[in-house]
Amino acid sequence: MNAGFAPIADMLKRQSGLDLGPDKLYLLETRLAPILKREGLRDLAELAARVRLSSALEREVVDAMTTNESLFFRDAKPFDALRKTVLPRLHAARPTGKTLRIWSAAASTGQEAYSIAMVAAELATTMAGRRVEILGTDLAREPLERARAGVYSQFEIQRGLPMQMLVKYFTKVDAQFQVKQPLREAVSFREWNLLADMRPLGQFDVIFCRNVLIYFDPPTKQRVLDALARQMPEDGVLFLGGAETVLGLTQSFRAAPGENGMYMRSISLQSVA
After folding, report:
1. Are 128 and 228 found together in one domain?
2. Pairing with 257, which of 5, 84, 245, 273 sits 20 to 30 Å away (CA)?
3. Rounded to an integer, what distance in angstroms lies between the CA atom of residue 57 and that of residue 15?
4. Is residue 267 over pLDDT 70?
5. Could you say which of 63, 138, 205, 226 is catalytic?
6. 69 in Cβ contact with 220 (< 8 Å)
7. Beta-bridge partners for 177
8. What pTM, to 2 d.p., does this model score?
């Protein structure tokens, strides 16, 4: 085993919750190769030694390892459920004038958050103009800057974005496409670590936390799920990735019948008190 693997893996777990087993050495070497080359370091052992002396370099390593792929309307079912049942139900249950809040955790470069915003915009008339506030957060800084700009390449646009949505919500800028200002104004982005105290973020009616838990060990998964539950009202909805589940981890959520990856907050939160 590469001598630098263990100290870097330990740092990543401590800082981000990312749980890397020895079989992920190749992933570590691949993701960190540009940093090694730039810094003139021979291997992970030299990088581990350098990271102990530089918080800025440590941050770069964390960012490199926690930046994940993001697509528009990735796995369409959560967005279909949001449009057909979740938002209409929450709208009917909330007093007039009450803002609905949605959190896109691990938002990366923003495609998920903007996809949510497009769903909400399409329902604006149905929901009588009710305000929907969308927050996208991520641990990595560079992807968040891209998300705030809302500028995407032709390749990124082609991956999941329906043509009618492209025409309605994007403007062509040279060879790229930018989210139009009204939609950008509906979404805010903020740097945030899911292992941190979530209370400053406030309450959310809907939380998307998809394809994040798969990188955590069971205790960290439970910790994050219980913390998410505390940020939601009794009728709150959580969306996880298709390969993720709350079963065997927490009693804070229960599966929504017939909806893969969709969970309702449990009425009793005694397990997370």
Report:
1. yes
2. 273
3. 13
4. no
5. 138
6. no
7. 152, 172
8. 0.85
